[in-house]
Design brief:
238 residues; Rossmann fold; seven-stranded mixed beta sheet; 9 helices; globular
Length: 238
């Protein structure tokens, strides 16, 4: 976002209070995420509430949620793992208003924020928070789990880990620790023919392929962004 746009957002929050505006600007100059300061962010066509400390959704995740919406039947059901603010779940709900969208997150702040955004969110680590009555009935599992390799955390923008929790990004030595858990946990909830969609990067999709094939996923599709960088994987459960 351009500096002028950020300044306009801060001015809108401050109103006519010059002292407040100065305080907000100082917080932004320190590197604090703009969404934490304004309390909101744009995600596709939606304005999403963002509470301090909650992961801010990135526009790079929009292709993931669009694919998920395409795979979700009108009256189907979906699980959004590591939901954060609930942006992906809220977008799915907007696209499929008659479907049931369930979300989980291990951070209580995120669960509260997602609920404030109208999401049916539960506390829990990945699938541990999903109501057990949904086992074997889910059409789509979608997730943006932490997938940055631990050695590459230092390459994130300087202010990211100054303010944000490293657990929002840290996916272990090669970034696939939590991705593996999502891959192995999803079959307990997906119906036969259900779809798993994960955001990831680099060689992670190839690293996951053997375990996905062994578990019983098929039609594994990897997609990339306009720059040719791998952004996600989609697979169907037999």
């Amino acid at each position: 976002m351009a500096a002028e746009e950020e300044a306009a957002e801060l001015a809108a929050v401050a109103g006519c209070d010059a002292t407040l505006l100065t305080s907000l600007a100082d917080r932004r100059r320190s590197g604090e995420p703009l969404a934490w300061i304004t309390g909101r962010t744009e995600f596709g066509d939606l304005t999403i509430r963002i509470d301090p400390g909650v992961y801010v959704p990135r526009w790079q995740s929009l292709p993931l949620v669009r694919r998920a919406a395409t795979r979700l039947p009108e009256r189907g059901s979906a699980i959004d793992l590591c939901t954060g603010s609930g942006a992906i779940a809220a977008t799915l709900r907007a696209e499929r208003p008659t479907a049931r969208i369930v979300a989980t997150d291990s951070d209580a702040r995120a669960v509260a924020c997602a609920r404030a955004n109208g999401v049916e969110a539960y506390p829990g680590d990945l699938f541990s928070g999903v109501p057990p009555t949904l086992r074997g009935k889910i059409d789509v599992v979608v997730a943006v789990v932490p997938y940055v390799p631990t050695p590459e955390l230092q390459m994130l923008p300087r202010d990211t880990l100054r303010f944000e929790d490293a657990s929002h990004y840290d996916g272990g030595p090669d970034g696939t620790d939590i991705l593996h858990r999502a891959v192995t946990g999803a079959p307990h909830f997906l119906r036969s023919g259900g779809v798993l969609l994960l955001e990831l990067g680099g060689e992670q999709a190839d690293a996951l392929r053997p375990v996905m094939e062994r578990i019983g996923y098929r039609s594994m599709e990897i997609w990339s962004d306009e720059d040719g960088d791998v952004r996600g994987v989609e697979a169907i459960l037999r």
